[in-house]
Amino acid sequence: MPLPRSVPFGFLGVPLRNLWKLQRAARVTTACWVDARPGRGMLRPALHPELDMITRRLALKTAAVAAVVSPTLIHAAPAAAPAAAPAAPTGPFRLDPLPYAADALEPFIDARTMEIHHGRHHAAYVNGLNKVVTDHADLAGKSPLELISNIAALPETARTAVRNHGGGHVNHSFFWQLLKRNGGIPPSGPLMEALVRRFGTFDGFKAEFTKASLAVFGSGWAWLSKDKAGEIGIETTANQDSPYMGGRIPLVGIDVWEHAYYLKYQNKRVDYVNAFFNVIHWEVVAEKFTKPA
Ligand SMILES: [Fe+2]
Q1: Whole-structure pTM over 0.90, yes or no?
Q2: CA of 169 to the centre of ligand 1 (A)
Q3: What confidence tens digit (pLDDT) does each residue in 54-99 have?
Q4: Do residues 24 and 160 both lie within one domain?
Q5: Is there a single domain that holds both residue 281 and residue 204?
Q6: Rounded CA gap, 190 and 201, in Å?
Q7: Which domain holds residue 115?
Q8: Rounded distance from Cα 223 to ligand 1 centre (Å)
Q9: Among 22, 36, 77, 162, which is 20 to 30 Å from 233 by CA?
Q10: Is 170 contained in some domain?
């Protein structure tokens, strides 16, 4: 027997007194679908993004019901992407999957933040960069790093968009690779020697890096970077600017846009920065440090 294309709310056991909340939020009647993948048992709207505003209590209730619904119902879902998520990037620039599960960095960076940060914000930068090259086909053959490393050489009509979207793509691709579960074990060897030479101690580096991270006004990044001679230093950039734009090579970078931490830490950026040190993949940083510029 063919599966129904949508599932009536009553079938899912949502109390009748709460139906109006779903209907008002989703602006639909029966055009919802059940995401029964592990950990994602939720009603999702087919047509309107406001379902994300459903109360947590109601979402949990529907999740419990979804857990017993056959996973084959997923195939009855409409083809549209989940609400508020941008369409998957199409074009020369692609969004690579996270190199670990979204919850791998818990409890320091929560899974929901990772899902939104990667699947929506990073995806939007990739989409934005692809849009730029639809109007400037000659740029499509260049790598994102090539594009942002020489912004001044770009056509003026593409410059700002490449700076923002290309910078966002490069910075976030860097960021995911920089992190790991059970990270934070201080480096040794030449990198540690350089840190001690520059900052006195490893804790001295952390203190300076934290200070710089908190000093970013508004949205931006704080970095440990090196120049072409291998000299390390701390810098900050606004928006999605990158050390590459100034001829320096990023080694450690923390995204201090609120989208990177607000769900878990709200306005306490310092708590996010302190947590960040627990997930730094220092082996990756050491490789970047020793790699010739
Ligand atoms: Fe970000």
Answers
A1: no
A2: 9
A3: 333 333 333 333 332 222 222 222 223 334 677 776 789 999 999 9
A4: no
A5: yes
A6: 14
A7: 94-293
A8: 14
A9: 162
A10: yes
